[in-house]
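HUMAN: Please help interpret these tokens:
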Amino acid sequence: MRRLRLAGRTLTLLGSVASVLLLLGSGVASATTVHPNTISVNLSSYGALCNGTHDDRPALASALSAVQAAGGGTITVPSGTCRIVQTASIVFTGVTGPVTIQGASSTSTLSLDTDVAGAYRELLRIFGSNVVLQNLNLTRSSNVFAVFLKVWNTTGFTLNNVMIDGKKNTIGGADVNAIELSAGSGQTLSDMHINGSTIKNSTFGLFQNSSTLGTVNGVTVDHSTFTNNYFDDLEFNAPNSSMSNITVTNSSFSNNQYSDPSGQAGIGVGLANVQTAKVQNNTFNGYFYAPVHIEDRSSHITVDGNQFFNSFKLALNYASMVQIINNSHFITVTNNTFDTSGNTNEIWCVYAGAGGGTAPPSDISITGNTFKLRPLAHDLANYSSPNVTISGNTYVALP
């Protein structure tokens, strides 16, 4: 172990690669890598007070500069609320990896604020490789039109045991989005992980703007919780780019707040223009529209082992829990439980149809599922979709 004087501070150098093992609340262990010859600093050493009122943005910026100048390292956020005030001249704080930002305790919080109420601001903008946030809370101090994490051309960006609370239920007002995927033209966002984390009281949990041109290859969400969000929890959408290898497993989706009958939001997992995805062993409960939505030429999608309750509360001819539309193909729906006991409207557990697109979906396999059906509930609505097979399912009649 060696020590280095940098920017007037003594920093500890780690001379070998170490692995940090994080035990998530779900009981799943996730390993993150600390790179060789990196430094470890505490945000309080750079002037952060983390008392909820002091502006700790300069301290965060200084700590990031020191770590990045040293080639990477770890920044520890003290217990308490570190208020980060972004302004018209400094809209976001940039984080270039390798760097880990971790909380010292369960109360360690970065809270986004602004100099102008309702103005657009970002908490962190992510670049480079191996940026890790762990054991940390992200929230708002005021009515900021916000994106907490805007992720650009990155590899290995990871959230471990991170709680993002947009406080839209209490602060209200402007849209507040948890994660935006934003790789530019010719750039790639790859190998991203969300583990044991919670996103709540936000507008979008994760989304990509339709105009985004970069490539996304590999996003994994595991043992995470999405609750009380106001639009889509996870919207994987790439009409002008490439998006592939999306995995959402072992997670809980509940209590979506979208309720506008004229709109098309309130989705748990949305896949549009996605190639190769798996939605497996999740629970969906309480969605205004379909909790799983597959559209726009998405292909090789597996929906496996999920539990669906009390979703698609409107009486429409496309009411469903898994909705497959717009020329999507090679879709497998297997081993799921569809429980319609909470639905009073007519509902189809799986819907396959053009959905306003130029062609209906095709090559859909619906096997090994359990359908718990009220009198107005059905297993499948197939509107001219070719090569649809439904077999080997179990049916339970509900009163």
